[in-house]
Task: inverse folding
């Protein structure tokens, strides 16, 4: 499927979003008392993708009969309540740049907005359709915890580990899962000892027999700040670029023409998880960079990769192991690179792209039926986790005095 099909499929998209639940049906009536608040936008470079993901999720949940609030977070952390008619279908980039102009109410501070959401009865289930720092790295999840609000997806620790490519590799690599050879460089060390760092990278390149390296900021997404250093001479500039975004960089062995396989995992209970896929991305560029990810028609993808059954099984098994290893809940997308006949676990995305044409919902829909059913399942899982939480208010008598 290509991005070019975006416009043509708009019609079917709308039908699919609602899935099998129709307004007035029994299922829709039973959802009427359920409230959800979808958070979209946010202060990261993936703001515009998040708006498309969040709006589609909100439309789907509303279509299933839930009472849905749309909370737009602007680039300066202002929280706005948006009317459902602020955009139709797939919001164009920038339509919420002036939220008041399209009927938004706000801005409120995060604290004021969360306090008001927490005081409601019933409390809405929060669905953060936010990518990258703040929305996907445990920050907003910690705020939800502080206000004791139910929310969809990974908790604080899993979000933080999932966002950090270095921590993630240390964890799953340490557990024996296949990860590509990598090194970590801090900005402090880089500023003090460029020659020493470059010597170490050169030594590892010789060890693995590959001159090219992939340099990444440790805690970002959407390929922002990622550079392939094709020659030793390009390594310094690649590190400088990564340090524009983070104080920790990851330097990986470059994999030759990898196939990019992705798995959708859904569930809370580590013993009762579902894995869908692998799907495959075919980037139309040297690697799956920002342009390949977000320009219509550049890359192609399929929810079902054409690979041997045994490899598919292995990919799903490692995806489940990694999901369990970080203690993920709700849902996530696990990404793999397959190169030279070897499989490498690349990363976990705890809030993967969630537009109607994104791979995560397409893969999960192969088991759950439709985009809307996938959204509902994730809300169900959020509710279940919240209900199952061990919460105990202490009194002075409980303290070990
Ligand atoms: N070691 C590598 N060798 C070759 N290509 C890579 C390597 N690491 C990443 N890539 C390419 O860069 C893309 C983005 O890398 P990734 O680690 O997934 O960062 P992000 O979190 O920004 O998506 C991958 O989808 C792949 O195309
Ligand atoms: Mg990626």
Result:
């Amino acid at each position: 499927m290509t991005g070019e099909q975006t416009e043509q499929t708009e019609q079917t998209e709308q039908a699919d979003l609602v899935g099998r639940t129709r307004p007035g049906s029994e299922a829709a009536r039973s959802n009427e008392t359920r409230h959800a608040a979808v958070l979209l936008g946010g202060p990261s470079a993936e703001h515009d993708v998040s708006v498309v993901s969040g709006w589609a999720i909100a439309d789907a949940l509303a279509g299933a009969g839930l009472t849905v609030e749309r909370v737009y977070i602007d680039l300066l952390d202002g929280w706005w309540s948006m009317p459902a008619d602020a955009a139709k279908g797939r919001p164009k980039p920038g339509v919420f740049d002036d939220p008041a102009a399209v009927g938004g109410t706000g801005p409120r501070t995060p604290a004021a907005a969360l306090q008001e959401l927490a005081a409601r009865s019933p409390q809405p289930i929060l669905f953060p359709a936010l990518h990258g720092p703040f929305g996907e790295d445990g920050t907003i999840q910690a705020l939800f915890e502080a206000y004791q609000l139910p929310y969809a997806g990974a908790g604080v620790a899993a979000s933080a580990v999932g966002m950090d490519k270095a921590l993630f590799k240390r964890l799953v690599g340490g557990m024996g899962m296949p990860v590509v050879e990598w090194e970590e460089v801090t900005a402090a060390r880089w500023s003090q000892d460029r020659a020493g760092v470059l010597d170490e990278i050169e030594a590892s390149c010789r060890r693995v027999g590959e001159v090219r390296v992939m340099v990444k900021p440790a805690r970002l997404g959407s390929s922002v700040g990622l550079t392939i250093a094709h020659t030793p001479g390009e390594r310094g500039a690649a590190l400088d670029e990564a340090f524009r975004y983070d104080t920790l960089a990851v330097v990986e062995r470059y994999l030759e023409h990898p196939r990019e396989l992705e798995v959708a995992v859904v569930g809370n209970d580590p013993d009762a998880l579902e894995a869908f896929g692998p799907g495959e991305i075919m980037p139309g560029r040297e690697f799956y960079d920002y342009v390949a990810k977000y320009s219509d028609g550049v890359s192609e993808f399929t929810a079902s990769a054409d690979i041997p059954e045994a490899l598919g099984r292995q990919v799903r098994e490692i995806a489940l192991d990694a999901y369990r290893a970080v203690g993920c809940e709700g849902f996530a997308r696990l990404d793999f690179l397959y190169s030279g006949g070897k499989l490498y676990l690349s990363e976990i995305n705890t809030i993967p792209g969630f537009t109607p044409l994104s791979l995560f919902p397409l893969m999960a829909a192969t088991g759950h039926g439709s985009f809307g059913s996938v959204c509902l399942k994730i809300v169900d899982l959020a509710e279940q986790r919240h209900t199952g939480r061990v919460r105990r208010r202490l009194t002075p008598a409980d303290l070990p005095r």
